[in-house]
């Protein structure tokens, strides 16, 4: 199976979101990755429900909404209405993570859990049969264009082993610093979804950049 590519719209040209959405529709990208930041859980503010809804009017591929916000339960239904096909929440932001995942599933969406670089995968051990994907942050969340954290490779291998031992079907997504220099190694470690922002939208030919990491 080829790696799924989910370009991060956070790195797109906000003045030309329709143009960039059309480009992704025409490319080999598989998902639209939408980073929602509240300035509280992470030290940055990206965009919210209206922009998400505007992107969904043009996106012809699934919208993967990554909630980097506090108390995400308050907005799950709203993001479904804004076009989300899948939602990932941070384990660090959810004191009742199982309940949050249940809410996402009850809305008919795919559910994911995101983990910051320092967070152990052990918090997922009793959730693997409830979730569809895990988003491993390979940079500290909040800003695009950061340098990839090398310990991510081992974290991915360990998570893949845990998933296999549990007999679960969970995709491993990598978010942060992904480019052509590490895509193959991430796939080899067990990653199945790559989020790429600056690498795609900063490229002279974004479609070619996507094709290059779709291994």
Automatic annotation (TrEMBL):
Note describing how the cofactor binds: Binds 1 divalent metal cation per subunit.
Residue numbers binding substrate: 8, 66, 142-145, 175-177, 197-198
Keyword check for Cell wall biogenesis/degradation: no
Pathways involved: Carbohydrate degradation
Root EC class: isomerase
Superkingdom field: Bacteria
Any one GO molecular-function label of the UniProt entry: metal ion binding
Residues annotated to bind a divalent metal cation: 33, 35, 66, 175
Entry GO terms, CC: cytoplasm
CDD domains attached to this UniProt entry: RPE
Coiled-coil regions, chain positions: none
Alphabetized HAMAP family for the sequence: RPE (MF_02227)
PANTHER family: RIBULOSE-5-PHOSPHATE-3-EPIMERASE
Family: Belongs to the ribulose-phosphate 3-epimerase family.
Protein name: Ribulose-phosphate 3-epimerase
Lineage, top ranks: Bacteria, Pseudomonadati, Bacteroidota, Cytophagia, Cytophagales
